[in-house]
Fold these 4 entries.
Entry 1:
Amino acid sequence: MVYWIAASMAAVLATLGLLFVPDRSGRSRAAEDGPALRPATWPRVSLIVPVAGIADCTEASLRSLLDQDYPTFEILWVTRDAKDDAVSLLRRLMREREESAAPPVRLVKSGPASRCGQKNRNLLAGVAAAAADTEVFVFADSTHEARPDWLRSLVAPISFGRTAVATGYHHILPARATLPLLGRAVTVLALYRLQECRHITQPWGGNTAIARALFERLKVADTWAGNVVDDVSLAMLLRQAGLRATPVREACLTSPLTDQDCSAWTRWLTRQWLYLKFCFPGSWAAAGVLLAVLAALIALAGRQVLVLAAGGGASLLNFVSLAFLAGLAGIGLSLRRFHPRPGPVPYWLAAVAAAVFVAIWSHFRTWRAHEIRWKGVRYTVGAKGRVISVH
């Protein structure tokens, strides 16, 4: 039995190590060739940004999108209606830009969603309002800050004809080293690292570019019009077409986070698991099996290490358990080097441990769930993310 447990621990460590430890930091060819590309060859872009409410970072994030060093693009800010808290901010920013030559900015109102997620409704309104000569749609959120070269970096692989879908991700920048803030940063970093595994890369709705021709060929708008989620449903369409999104590390965004408790962290992660469950049930189930095995092994290893610390005597299982926990800590430290602001090592390791258990608990909460709650709206969801009802 001890040898089976040891083999299981080794297999889990190997799996986690392959997913999170390798440094896939080689700059993309598109990023290397980008500066040599003549501006006239860059495709015209419509940058569509759904906005709902105002967060602490909203204004800085929107300004960073306005200040992109890209030759031909327009921005469409989309709100549900004129009553949204963000409308006054958007109009003020638009007035400030009136004397500037570029980029042109428009405010679009989508109306309330009745058959899909509200974000999907906003995105579709932005797509419908985009300029007729737009060649690439770029979708971004209103709570992430971008470097001036972000848009060029994201669109470059499409400009070179190397892909029709490019996606970046983001880093959470916690305002202070608290467990919920650092834990959320660890969770997002883990997802970021998974994004860089090209065989499992999925487009992320807060940072994705797609050629308009492919968007229309896949009939993405038809899917979004009845779906609860934008990016995971797009990933579903890409998989059905035998296509993959190309990850672009150079297009990384940053997300300042000043306030977060464990409850909000868990609710957010539960939604991510639910999106996966509805659109990719096989991947959701496989992740659940891995998490269940990981939870069981951590519980067993923790118990054995406590026995060893209490003077229970040395045994092979005790030392194997100690090595397993040390291996998990090593993977957590390896993950730390990929974050721009990881904080002190002890806090980071505590956040890694918390992130594991929040991931397990959040996944467990999705086992019997058929609804998603977001911003005061409850969506009843069926197979493949199809919205059955909105309340």
Entry 2:
Amino acid sequence: SRVLTFALGGTATLPPREVVTETIPPAPAQFADAATIKVGEQGYFRICVACHGFGAVSAGLLPDLRHSPVLADKDAWYEVVGNGARKDAGMVGFKDDFTPEEIEALRAYVISLARAEQKLP
């Protein structure tokens, strides 16, 4: 995003906008059944959606969870979502709000979204 300031009679032009291209990692294999994914979806809509948006699709301010490098790693996901390994970046831990099984169900739900985006079964 940019902040623009205008002046009466101004003649300045905007510099070219920097284009950032994101490399989308391949979606991880799904490890969970439909019931577990549903539990993850319910948990996501209870807490995560407020910051990460519908369908885990980023609006640009927060990371797109479907493209998270920790999505494929159960332990890394728990460190971030459960223990708050990225609290300095604003991502607090939610181990008081979710059981370890529910945190894993959240991961299953986000994997299902990543796979759907990439049109994978």
Entry 3:
Amino acid sequence: MQPYFLASLCKNGILGGGITVEQDSFTYHTGKVTVPSKYRNLRIPFRSILSLSIGNTLLFPWVSVSLSDGEAYKFIIFGRKRFLSLLRAGGVDC
């Protein structure tokens, strides 16, 4: 079973969902039909990650991901330490 994290994408509001971590990528999933299809199953390959930054907003742990194509995404992730350790194990420098 793939590791799963409760998460929200911060893009034009906070979009609740979850993140699964695969061997070479992670995928944000949401079932909200009002969310553009681009964000419903947003797959981010580890090799496309340029940088990560972390912080807290109102006690919520967030991770900001900058990609090689110029896109940037901010996620609120519960279980952030475990999430980051899985990314490190996948070769992401964080």
Entry 4:
Amino acid sequence: MKLALLCAASVISSLCLPLAAASAQQGQVTFADVMARPDDLDLNFAYARAQADDGDHEQAAATLERLLLLRPNWDDARLFYAFTLYRLGDFEGAQRELELLKARPLPAEQGQQVDQLLTLSRVGSNQTRVTGSVSVGAVLDENPAAIADQRSGALLDPRSERKTDGAGILAGEMRIEHTLPTGHGDLLFLDTRGWVRQQFDVEIADYVSGRIRAGGVFFAGDLSITPFAHYGAYTLDDELFLQESGGGINLGYPVTPRLELLGEVLALHEEFDDTDLNRYGAEQSGTYVAAGGGFSFELTPVDTMRFKALYLDKSADLVNFDYHGYELQLFNHLDLGAG
């Protein structure tokens, strides 16, 4: 097993953004344009870029393969072909094309892109992969004593003095994946995430939390099925107030190369503890269920939007802590510059 902490978005966006800019300058190339001038290789290359921009990477790869048969030393086309194979998950094919490029006299920037994409392709072809990330930040809040985690049910003294305070935030995650020899892309995974918030003065809002999930991703045709087991623990002001255990399942079905429908079910048993902040913790213990769906849409190769609508239901040991409601989630992931 090789350990690699990599940022694929850096390479992907560094390739996509210049190509997208070139497409914008030339205008969108259509199949009719290619049919009108089939011998224009530059036009065909622009058409392959347009196909990739539309999320049709398989057709883009086929177009690029034909171009390279006609012009084998076209380095720009071969690099984009390798990138397209990488996006399709054909890591061995991408490595083959990149090794050919390494023997060519490339400009320094293009040579660096080849080296980065070759590293990513080698990692992607490993049966076992480890990836991770760490994020740091800061926050300024005008009343941090009132924001103790909303799911803790902390009973704070309403007479407590409102005080503005800052905090440092640290978040990290690590994921281990192991590809199964099914030939369909099935894999097993272990995913861990943790969050720390440390107030400068108001200690009541300090928290440390983490969760771990283990499961697999399995494919039935185009449908991806991701069952998983879940465990999480949450502390507030150095006291453990909540442990949750259970599992769930996520579903994904691509309607088009750019649009994927999503489904999600999560069922947990929540075990609350009495703390100095919350003397009614035990009565909040019970079951928590979230279920719903949504979609993921690739606006551009470097900009993806995801929307989910979930129904939430909590059944506590003490009925006063029962609740149900709805949650809407909207995420947008945009790679800027070189990722």
